[in-house]
Design goal:
The protein has 207 residues and is mainly α. 74% of the residues lie in helices and 0% in strands. Helix 2 packs antiparallel against helix 3, helix 5 packs parallel to helix 7 and helix 9 packs parallel to helix 11. The protein is globular.
Length: 207
């Protein structure tokens, strides 16, 4: 039987949920095919399976993910790849080398922000990279700086700005500059209501 793109996507999703590292080669192969839906599922599966592997394997596939995201024409696939990098880096037992590489890629994507959805997904992925990382508060604050710097301009797509606010909340950045910015956004009745809501959620995550 020849499976449709959608059916292949379901199969890949199942492999990701199982989380068996032996499926990595298959997932990697799917990323090289022209099956859009299956590739999207493969991007997500990478973030589910790689945390179950050793640091060397993680580093190898993080580089592969980076290469795939660079050449993939489907923005949704690339966005899902960013989230997977955040999930990998956010695991408590992630090695410093792997985390540093994931964070470097995410920071680069956040700065470039070529597409409307690229910056918010990179911001949320950075939030995942530092979310709940109590052992390294310096890392979380370091991740927050570029996001806060962009958010404080309050320019651009409202969805992107909201994602950046949520990312700051996920990072638990209790620093005065971040808290003051979020409170200012919350109080500004001239701002979009959903954006003010995102600021409120971010403050709730921080506290």
């Amino acid at each position: 039987k020849t499976f449709s793109d959608l059916e292949k996507a379901y199969i890949v999703t199942a492999l990701g949920k199982i989380g068996d590292p032996s499926a990595l080669k298959t997932i990697d192969w799917v990323l090289s095919r022209k099956w859009t839906l299956a590739r999207r599922s493969a991007m997500i599966a990478m973030g589910q399976i790689l945390p179950q592997t050793d640091a060397a394997t993680q580093l190898t596939y993080v580089q592969k993910l980076k290469a795939v995201m660079k050449r993939d024409s489907d923005q949704t696939s690339r966005n899902f790849g960013l989230i997977s990098l955040g999930r990998i880096a956010g695991k408590a037992d992630c090695s410093d080398k792997v985390r540093d590489e994931c964070v470097r890629i995410l920071k680069d994507q956040f700065k470039q922000g070529g597409k409307t959805t690229e910056r918010p997904f990179a911001a949320l992925a950075l939030g995942l990279a530092g979310f709940g990382s109590d052992k390294d508060k310096d890392l979380r604050y370091d991740l927050a700086q570029p996001i806060r710097g962009e958010l404080q301009k309050l320019k651009g797509d409202k969805v992107a700005l909201g994602a950046q606010a949520i990312a700051l909340g996920m990072l638990g950045d209790t620093g005065k500059p971040t808290v003051d910015l979020l409170i200012k956004m919350l109080k500004d009745r001239g701002l979009d209501k959903k954006l003010r809501g995102s600021a409120a959620v971010a403050l709730g995550l921080i506290n």
